[in-house]
Amino acid sequence: MKKSNRKVLIAILVIVIGVGFLIYRGLSSTSVYYMTVAELKTSSLGQQLGPDQAVRVGGLVINGSVDYNQRDLVLRFALKDEGNPQQTITAIYKGARPDAFEPDIEALLEGTYDRDQNLFQAKTLLVKCPSKYESEPKPEKENTQ
Amino acid sequence: MITFGILAQFAALVFTLLAMGLLLCGLGRNNVRLVQAGKRGLLSATAATTLASIALGYLFLTDNFQVEYVASYSDRALPLFYKLTAFWAGQKGSLLFWAWVLSLFITLVIFNNRKEQDDRNTPYIYLVLAATLGFFLFLLCAVSNPFDTLGFMPQDGNGLNPMLQNPGMVFHPPLLFFGYIGFTIPFAYAIAAMITGNTDADWIRKTRVWNVLSWIFLSIGIILGGQWAYVELGWGGYWAWDPVENASFIPWLVSTAFIHTAIIQERRGIMKVWNMVLILLTFTLCIFGTYLVRSGVLQSVHDFGATGLGGYFLFFVAVVLIGGIYLLAESYGEFKTPGSVESYLSRESTFLFNNVILLALAFATLLGTVFPIISEAVTGNKLTVGQPFFNQVNTPLFLILVLLTGICPLIGWRKATASNLRRNFLRPAATALLAAIIMVAFGIREPYALLAFTLAAFVGGTIVQEYVTAIRSRKKLTGESSASAGLKLLWRMRRRYGGHIVHFGLAMMVVGIAASSAYKLESQGTLNRGETLAIGEFTLKYEDFRIYQKYNRTVYAAKLGIFREGKRIDELEAERRNYINAKQPTTEVAIRSTLIEDLYVTMPGIGRNNEITLKVAVNPLLIWIWFGSGLMVLGGVLAIIPSRRKKHA
Q: What is the pTM of this model?
């Protein structure tokens, strides 16, 4: 192998190792567990979570549980497990209610879980936007006026 | 019309299979006429997909809600424009659109080569194209048929999701598709070259326009998606590293790498195997991206639902990858190149490093995207990563990429000498240093932002230096004015300057991204009429409220006066809309865009007595992102305008 080729290879190797380290550090410092509501409440991994440990949880927004304070932009609601609807948590999200947020929709929250109060403090809230609307074509106005 | 559509679709599949059969026979018997017949089969398939597409468009226009797909994505009140574009609003129509565009592209290839003599590669090229088209037509006919009917005629359709009723969203999917589909053509040429062992840069030269064009489409598609998120979704950003976004970004990164090393193969005849790997990866990632989006394996804001198509796409990806790797291994001996990168201080080597970084970005983004799947497979627990991961890993890599963009044109091919390096680097480096000093003087302390601005200035400096030097020497040679010399250079050497313009646009984007993410201001408040909310140097005053009907929606609008230093400089109208058929009111974003900053206003709440809640943000230099991306596209277009002479440097 020519000398210059070796130098290029070494440089690439250094970059690759650097990138590997960057990715490793990124994964270990930012990755969080994803759980369903039931797993969060009952699984051993869920039990081990500290009150300050970030976790992502997914479930269905319970119909009738939504309480949106549009003055201060605080959204409170309850989430149930999709397969096991007896398992529920309450959640609080400080921010604007996303347009697609509605009862029975699947929501993904990231934040911390307080086991004693069964309260999830969501830092981010993602809702799956349904690509279509299935139910009756009747406009509602609950959020205005 | 429904039966007509189904028949046309089926006919397209039959024609495609027929074409494949003819091409295979033509190959076996070495018969040129069979190959020609195969091409005609593909042309017939194009006619059939066109008819099927017209049929679907007609069903949308005539509100034929008997068709399940039409009923799902349209309603009577939908404006005409959106009725037509609802064609690709959902999965089934997208598939038909995909097949239609692919067949049109194939027709273009046939048309472009009508004067060229067929060579050994030709049958293989069309065979690969036909197989890909056949895959999509099979899905349309057998698995996901847009002409499926409900069995009854509903009163009205479900309507198009209001969030999709936005011009940006209308053109975002088809442009992405153009990009994805366009890469099928270089892919087909590459496979053919591997099979026949035609090892020169012929396939790269012939598909250069397709490569760059697909890259341009992919770029516009991604940018429009970001722009749509910014002006429509109202969370204030344009990119969230959501799996669906990543699915389009990963092939973009790899194709960018490919475009760069393709130049090296053209000029120096090296990196042949590497280029094969890159085009294979690009194409695979395009299909894999579609799989990710359609299969429901990942949790994304954009939910296309688990549609049962995932398995088919995964199968297709597996066939392409395994087949590609097999062919590559078979032909590896013939592709091994005599030449090599001669010095680590050469333009080739900066291209090589640029490739490593681009692929690292693609890998990191892919890993982050599929990490929940991998971690669950390995540990049994789902671990996810979000924006922090991508920002933490990709930001430094991007900055290195920008640095390389600046360095690359300063270093000559083959081997650079110390003296020309010193001469070339002096001014751009001084520009960058000056930019850094000015930034620090203006109080910019955020390390990444400072670095980004400095590197962008460096890139800008190198490009301007190149251009000015070239203009000067041309003036000396021809005695033209600066303006005329400058324009003539741009036009005569459009391939080179197209590239420079792309890089200049990139530098502008970097500035916009760094400024708007590091120095964003946010505020929120609840106002009664006459009250004000202050943010940065702006004050917003709630002046008026009105409710009115427009097309298929009721609009609730608050008029806001914008004040700076006590003077009313402008006004914005923040809106919430109630669409017929939508359960929820939607938030409309009001933006006041200037070169300096965007004032970004949403109105998440309207209370008693028209009391409004506002969310306001100031995004500095955000418009630079759109300008920069526009330049990137323009530069790309300039680079592929064909020259009358067949060849140029």
A: 0.92
Give the three-class secondary structure for B112: helix
Domain shared by B114 and B170, yes or no: no
Alpha helices, DSSP H only, in B479-552? 482-492, 494-518
B145 lies in the same domain as B178? no
Quickly name the fold that domain A33-127 has. OB fold (Dihydrolipoamide Acetyltransferase, E2P) (2.40.50)
Burial class (CB in 10 A: 0-12, 13-18, 19+), B271: buried
pLDDT digits (tens, 9 = 90+) for B570-626: 999 999 998 877 777 888 899 999 999 999 999 988 888 889 999 999 999 999 999
Q: Are residues B260 and B401 in the same domain?
A: yes
For A115, other C-beta atoms within 10 Å of its C-beta total 14
B618 has which bridge partners?
Answer: B521, B599
* Interchain CB contact of B166 with A (< 8 Å): no
**Residue B23 tokens, joined:** 């091409």
DSSP sequence for A33-96: EEEEHHHHHHSHHHHH--TT--EEEEEEEPTT--EEETTTTEEEEEEE-SS-TT-EEEEEEESP
From B315, B178, B193, B326, select the one nearest B255 (Cα to Cα).
B178
Asked if A111 has any chain B CB less than 8 Å from its own CB, the reply is no
Burial class (CB in 10 A: 0-12, 13-18, 19+), B33: exposed
Question: Taking a contact as any Cβ pair under 8 Å apart, which residues of chain A between 5 and 34 contact chain B?
Answer: 5, 7-8, 11-12, 15-16, 19, 22-23, 25-27, 29-34
The full set of domain ranges for chain A reads 1-31, 33-127
Question: ipTM, 2 decimals?
Answer: 0.85
Tens-digit pLDDT profile for residues B299-321:
655 555 556 777 888 899 999 99
Q: What are phi and psi of B538, to 5 degrees?
A: -100, 150
Could you tell me if B168 and B230 lie in one domain?
yes
Whether residue B422 sits in one domain with residue B365: no
A71/B526 Cβ within 8 A: yes
Q: Are B496 and B641 in contact (CB under 8 A)?
A: no
Q: What angle do CA B448, B453, B457 make, to 5 degrees?
A: 145
Identify whether the C-beta of residue A55 lies closer than 8 Å to the C-beta of residue A49: yes
Q: Is residue B649 part of a domain?
A: no
Report which secondary-structure segment, H or E, holds B138: helix B122-138
pLDDT at B323 over 90: yes
Question: Using an 8 Å Cβ cutoff, are B616 and B601 in contact?
Answer: yes
| Cross-chain residue pair B607–A71, CB shorter than 8 Å | yes
Cβ contact B489:B467 at 8 Å: yes
CA distance B127 to B17: 10
- Whether B317 and B291 have beta carbons less than 8 Å apart is answered as yes
